[in-house]
Amino acid sequence: MTRLRHVAWRLAEPPGFLPPLAVQALKVAIACGLAWGIGQALGSPRPFEAVLAVIILMQGHAYGSLLNALQFLLGVAAGLVLGILAERIAGVSAPVLAAVMFVCLLMGGWLKVSSQGFNNQIAISALLVLASGSATNIDRLWETALGGAVGVLVAALLWPPNPVRGLRQQYREVRQRIRSDVLRSLELAGGGGDPDANRRRVRANSERADAAVAAVAPAEEALRWNPWHFGRLHDLSDLEDRLRLLAYLYRTVRALARQAAEAPVPQPDGAHDWGHGRRHLLAAGADVIEAIERRLTGRDVGDAVGRGREAVARFAAAAPRERHAVALAAALDDLLTDVEDWRPPNEVDPERLLVARVLRRLGGGAPFARSPVVQAEMEFEEERRHALRQDLGGVVTRRSRAAPPLSDVVRAAGAADEIVRGVHDIPIARIRGSENRSADFDASFLPRRRNVRRRWVELFTTMQEGVQPPPIDVYQLGDAYFVKDGHHRVSVARHLGWDRIRANVVEVTTRAPVGSDVSARELLAAAEYAGFLERTELDVSRPEARLECSQLGRYDAIFEHILGHRYFLGQAGREVSIPEAAASWYDSVYRPLMEVVRAHDLHERLPGWTDADIYLALTRRWLDLGQEGLPAGPESAAGALLADAEVAGPSRRARWAAGRLGRLVRRPGRAPR
User: Fold this and answer.
1) Cα–Cα separations (whole angstroms), residue 375 to 1, 238, 254, 380, 606
2) pLDDT digits (tens, 9 = 90+) for 456-495
């Protein structure tokens, strides 16, 4: 039984490393080979019509292949009959050919299966009979039928498409967009920002929601005559109801964004001041989002809608007496009413109704119902296969998707301290990795191994109902979070489209700063900076010092400057430690040069350069001017550096800056004493 289930799964799901185009091409190739072999076994030495029928008829799903095959066979049969009759009765001439084509095209508009286009195969088959001058083509009709049958069977049984996954991803995206669009529109009302850009973004998101609803009908066609994924019609029905709700609500959200864009900004004299009512406006927005979430998860929305209407009333009382504020309150109230009164369209599928009646008479239950555990199992397997495809894609492109674990980051940047921050709602998008390397989940927290299935399924069955799991344990490093405990919860939350998750946060500080993009290159840069601080102790003696370099290998050049400054200080006859020399260098050399940098506005004129980059460039240029016998000093070096940049021109400035910075690493030069 286990072997049969494994074989069935292999037939239902294509290999994870094959892209969709390769899967479809392989299916057509297999069907062509089968049609040729079966045709030869049935007595046809070269059954090319069967192969041709497979190529012409085979669609991505069995239902489309069946419709095409039926239409093709009807067209071939009708065309053969018309061609034979015309050839035997009237012969072949220009008037006869024109008349036959006219009749064939008229019949093509009537003898078709789909509602669009017409069946041109009638005219093609009749033309082949007239061109050959004989009725021998009728002997090939069975080959065409054979090719159509093989195409339908292969399309149905071998790797049929499963559009539910793509629609589910679209649903998550639309669900996230409507939440952000509502809150952003309310935040921009009567305030700063760019409300017109927000209005355009809301309109684009509304069109995406409509497109997702329009994709349901083709998805339903793909699931018909699909033995492996037919049970997902129930999932598709649920997705359709939720997508229709979101698309319906977006009509009012667009009105909300329009009123927010047209609302006047506050004036210096106090007119149009939204300050008193803004907190009530944002509170109403939060209640609207909660009501939408409750409606999407099938929970009662009465309490959330009631709180939202109370907040709208408070906003209307505190807002300025202005028509856009009144319209904004009315749009919010309409949105709450839409959520409260929404009911799925009362549409009945006769086929499903007939199946339901038959099952009831046989004593069965709901025809397409699936237990939450079975659904969770299918979701897990899809996620695991998605992780496999991502890993294989990383191997092909030679790009690692795994984020460095926190242990590697702390080892590179140097641990400083840990601070317990308590329980907070953290953004899931900022969770970058784990405390240690984990083979169970990838960088996006997709499950890799089957041994995490049981826990993942248990969490999915509860979290999809909106139940909050226990807080996860994370370390915070800058803007990034690393999971200590709770990988399964993060994986399920991301799969369900959650924006935030509860977490016990412990903040970790490091000697060298680490950004949110924790890449291998950034780890190398942090390791260099941490080693530099370990030798100089500038983070202890001068905590305000921030010497960040944009390229690797530059801290060695700065350290050489500090050693040169140490030698200069030692001329007084006493031993100077490296930390003492570093502090003196920072006060007497680095900071005065930064004053020159600010005076010449070098940060604006050299975009992308850090303070340490500019320091190295100034000292190098200072040394070059002295060697050339020109007036040397910080002011002259700053002027020469700007002149070099201006000569490079705007289009070449970026290349000049990169080359200049690269030469600084190779030729650090001596620092001023």
Assistant:
1) 21, 13, 34, 9, 56
2) 989 988 887 778 899 999 888 877 888 888 889 998 988 8
Taking alpha carbons only, the member of 644, 662, 645, 663 closest to residue 653 is: 645
Q: How confident is the model at residue 617 (pLDDT cuts 50, 70, 90)?
A: confident
User: Residue 671 corresponds to which tokens in the numbers above?
Assistant: 């620092």
Is the pLDDT at 224 greater than 90? The verdict is: no
Residue 246 vs residues 171, 338, 339, 342: alpha-carbon distances, Å: 9, 10, 10, 10
Has residue 503 got a pLDDT over 90? Answer: yes
- Kindly tell me the burial class for residue 68, based on how many C-beta atoms sit within 10 Å of its own C-beta (0-12, 13-18, 19 or more): buried
| Diameter over CA atoms, the chain | 124
- On whether the CB atoms of residues 57 and 149 are closer than 8 A, the answer is no
Q: Note whether 504 and 471 are within 8 A (CB).
A: yes
Average pLDDT of the residues in 296-323: 82
CA distances from 67 to 71, 150, 225, 258 (A): 6, 14, 11, 45
* DSSP reduced 3-state for 133: coil
**Least confident residue range of 88-92, 320-324, 375-379, 493-497:** 320-324
- Here the tokens at position 391 are 């890993």
Q: Half-sphere exposure (CA, 13 Å, Cβ side) for 572?
A: 6
- Pairing between β-strand 500-510 and β-strand 415-427 as defined by DSSP bridges: antiparallel
- Rounded Cα distance between 179 and 379, Å, is 24
What single-letter DSSP state applies at residue 205? H
pLDDT tens-digit map of 375-432? 777 778 778 877 776 666 655 555 555 556 777 676 666 666 678 888 998 988 888 8
Mean of per-residue pLDDT scores for the chain: 75
Query: Is residue 505 helix, strand or coil?
Result: strand
Closest CA relative to residue 63, chosen from 150, 156, 145, 159: 156
SS3 371: coil
Question: How do residues 510-569 score in pLDDT, each as one tens digit?
Answer: 766 666 566 556 666 767 777 777 788 887 888 887 777 777 667 778 888 888 878 888
Does an H or E element contain 670, and which?
Answer: none
Sign of torsion over alpha carbons 515, 520, 523, 525: negative
The CA distance from 62 to 73, in Å, is: 16
Q: Residue 284 to residues 198, 304, 325, 333, 493: CA-CA distances in angstroms?
A: 19, 10, 14, 9, 25
From 232-241, 361-370, 474-483, 527-536, the region with the lowest mean pLDDT: 361-370
**Residue 550 near residue 603 (C-beta atoms within 8 A):** no
Q: Are 413 and 462 in contact, with CB atoms under 8 Å apart?
A: no
DSSP of 285-319? HHHHHHHHHHHHTT---HHHHHHHHHHHHHHHHHS
Is residue 147 within 8 A of residue 35, CB to CB? The reply is yes
Instruction: Identify whether the C-beta of residue 515 lies closer than 8 Å to the C-beta of residue 522.
Output: yes
The dihedral through the CA atoms of 11, 17, 23, 25 has a sign that is: negative
Report the pLDDT value the prediction gives residue 657, as an integer from 0 to 100.
Answer: 46
Domains delineated in the chain: 2-157 (no CATH), 165-209+229-341 (1.20.58), 406-520 (3.90.1530.10), 537-666 (no CATH)
| Model-wide pTM > 0.90 | no
Count of Cβ atoms closer than 10 Å to residue 188 Cβ = 20
Asked if residue 123 has pLDDT above 80, the reply is yes
